Hints:
7-stranded mixed β-sheet; 16% strand
Amino acid sequence: MNNLQALVRPNIFRLKPYSSARDEFTGKAGIFLDANENPYGSLNRYPDPYQRELKAKLAAYKGVNPANIFIGNGSDEVIDLAFRIFCRPGQDKALSFSPSYGMYDVAADINDTELIKLPLRDDFQIDTAALSPYFNDECLKLIFICSPNNPTGNCMNAADIDYILQNFKGIVLIDEAYIDFSEEISWNQRILDYPNLIVSQTFSKAWGLAAARVGTAYMNADLLHFFNKVKAPYNVSQVNQEVAMDALDDLATYEQNRTAILQEKKRLKAALKALNFVRQIYPSDANFFLVEVNNANEIYQQLIERKIIIRNRHKLVNNCIRITIGKPEENQALIKALQGLQAEMMV
Ligand SMILES: *Cc1c(COP(=O)(O)O)cnc(C)c1O
């Protein structure tokens, strides 16, 4: 990429990264007296800083080259690293759309970077006409596109994303945390077409490993170089790498759980539709629904009293709640509670 030097913070461009013992000797068999590890135990060795075994499995499954994969401590690490690599604190800017994922705001604040929030259109798609003037802002380094979007659930139009990738000279980070629930093709298939594209995904949602903290990002090798330089040397623990590999070795369980969730999604949608205080269920490519109701605050409170926790998104989208698809019995309990509220005319 010809303008990478103009995009990367100068101190990061120059940065000489920490060289760990596991960087300097990468062979397997031998006597390891190089890293001040304890010779006893089962988790006594530092893990592979580049997670090569996990990347090989993931690459085969995703149909990408391992050299184009970054593994993070959750995909939230990828978001934070993007700010740290590209945005000079107090000077550069990033842009996201609203409503969208709250971590972009927090990561921007932590990194002392202004985050421009451009409202999505009424159909929750990107207003490209409103966006394009920002392309001329030399301090705008980073655009976040969440697709499928949290909390609205929709994928962004591919033509709009193509337009942004072709016309914006900075970095475009497409957050695909929910892509595994969608029929859409991942943008990770396009990383070699677009040198400014980063696609993040996660093991936290469809793979059922939120507790493990394993996120992934796909990008061309020139960009990846900077992520490897800036990350903590051992950012993904051995335990985390192993559970992610176990998940990739057991695709049957992954498929079974994903199918169960998608089946429940249909059932939950039909049941929600039948409630008279439900005004609208937005189309969802994810494992949740954004639902417009008569009184979001009241429903949220009433459900809490019944020990059912949903997300009140009223402040982001008027009278909207976000409901995650649970197990059949959990969804049934929710439906029953909502039917009860309707019968008692509490909402
Ligand atoms: C849940 C979620 C993530 C996942 O973050 P992890 O750090 O990988 O757990 C990322 N982006 C969005 C939009 C999400 O909703």
